[in-house]
Amino acid sequence: MNDSAGRSGESGPDRDVLKIVALVAALVLALIFYFVWLGRIAVGLLTSGKVAGVALGVGVLILPLLGVWMVVSTIRSALDHQRLARRIHDEGLELDVADLPRRPSGRIDRAAADELFLSIQREWEADPDNWRVSYRLARAYDYAGDRSRARDTMRRAVDLEKRERETGA
To answer: Mean pLDDT across the chain, nearest whole number?
Structure first.
């Protein structure tokens, strides 16, 4: 009985990941349906032969094209970030925030997040071209609530990691 309980506890995170992947896949399928539907409307408007119809058709055709670009770029970014997170985890370099004080909402206390950020910023200043330190800085920005800098720094970490993989360094 303990053996089966242990196995179900171990598969919990895997099951959560599968639920998230299934949800993302369902949303992408719904978006594909929506994009095809919009594309058919656009083609109908473009072939109407009327100036207003053609103009609307061009506008409607742009929507699914933008949508496909947004979905692809978002999924690509998510996969890049997940790859870095996995590597950081495997190397034991994740930020330890377990003992930091938290607000009732569960977010890390602002003063503690700022202190964490300052310590990671010093690491980054010592080695700004290291993707691992840039990744840790992006996470620290996120914990401190600065989402735009977190995104920018994460993009930098992805670029640096990609360069490292390509050069084999």
So the answer is: 86
Q: How many helices (H) and strands (E) does the chain have?
A: 5, 0
Name the helix (H) or strand (E) containing 8.
helix 2-46
- Which amino acid appears at position 42 of this protein? A
Tens digit of each residue's pLDDT (9 = 90 or more) over 72-84 = 899 899 999 999 9
Sign (positive or negative) of CA dihedral 45, 48, 52, 55: positive
Dist. CA 112–CA 106, nearest whole Å: 13
pLDDT tens for residues 82-107?
Answer: 999 999 999 999 888 888 888 888 88
Residue 60 · residue 42 · CB < 8 Å: yes
Are the C-beta atoms of 20 and 12 separated by less than 8 Å?
no
Closest residue by Cα to residue 31 from 73, 75, 60, 71: 71
Residue for token digits 């938290």? 102
What are the backbone angles phi and psi of residue 139, rounded to the nearest 5°?
-65, -40
pTM comes to 0.71
